[in-house]
Amino acid sequence: MEQPQIVRYGELQPCRSAFIDAHTPGSDKKENFTIIGAGVAESVHQHVHIKATPGFNTGAAGQPPKCFNSLHYHNTAEVFFVLKGRWRFFWGQHGTAGEVIMEEGDIFNIPTRVFRGFENVGTDYGMIMSVLGGDDSGGGVIWAPHVLDAARDHGLVLAETGVLYDTQKGEQLPDGVRPMPNLTEEQLAEIPEVPASVVVPNYVRRYWDMMALAKHEPCDVISATGLIKDKPGFQVELLARTSVSSDSYANPQHEVLVVMRGHWKLTWDDQEVVLNPGDTCWVPPGLVHAIAACVSGEASLYRISKTNDSAGLTWSGG
Fold it and tell me: Is the pTM of this model over 0.90?
């Protein structure tokens, strides 16, 4: 049977040219990390740590203060939780439909086909972790037209194939390949501008509220019956020290563990490993294993498991 694979936080390999806005002022200092699965990076230089395809992708974005990620949307689920720092998430074609400030541990399940962006508003380098639905993430990233226009002014061109070319390095589109077209006005009119009064109560959950619910059992954060009701193809739970037993179990589905706080011991067969904050661990289906917090004090981790549904949460105007 396959063995767990671990990506240590300190060993994450960034790509600084992963997306179309990599040269655009304000976005040119961000780092992208693809942890499990191919992700949606547009650069051939993006390193993929674990090439398993568990039905979803996991990754991360690291940014210094005042650095932002440009407005885009996906056709599959996108979930973020804050690992380090303080972040502002904003949405709408021009980022003016609404915004929310997220603290460490908070989670945001953004509806599909809604333009979104995010900015580090803290005082230090920050990191957010992401989960994208599907093995191929539904065709990558769809950018707001003004993002593509700004990128061309700074030497980056996205091909209709989804591959990024840097004209500052002498790269050119291959013969017969056209640039990615901007969305038309008709297409833009179909993309909703969802108010904050709807987004924040329904799609955002706060860390300490979830920790309170995880006192005696794992907190079901995102699922058909969770705090955020959705069917994105995966379930998200928050586990605290007292919400798990030392008993071994086998998950019939792919499972990913991302440590938020504290140190956790993972055991299987006759092996044992300690997971630290920011570490990501992929556990193959059917492996008998156990997880437990190592020492006293605050301890939490997100557990993500594949599910057999992949409808995804969309905004219907209701």
Answer: yes
Render pLDDT for 46-71 as a digit per residue (tens, 0 to 9).
899 998 778 899 999 999 999 999 99
Q: Does the structure show a pLDDT above 80 at 31?
A: yes
Q: Are residue 20 and residue 131 in the same domain, yes or no?
A: yes
Sign of the torsion formed by the C-alpha atoms of 50, 131, 311 and 213: positive
Place of tokens 């086998």: 250
Residues 134, 251, single domain; the answer is no
Map tokens 């972040």 to a residue. 87
User: Are 46 and 150 in a shared domain?
Assistant: yes
**8 CB contacts (<8 Å, ≥6 apart)?**
276, 278, 279
> Which CATH number fits the domain that encloses residue 61?
2.60.120.10
**Domain's final residue, options 204, 236, 254:** 204
Question: What backbone torsions phi and psi does residue 189 show, to the nearest 5 degrees?
Answer: -65, -20
Which of 166, 181, 204 is the last residue before a domain boundary? Answer: 204
Q: Which domain holds residue 136?
A: 13-204
Same domain, 238 and 302: yes
* Residues 80, 145 within the same domain: yes
Work out the pLDDT band at 311, boundaries 50, 70, 90. Answer: low
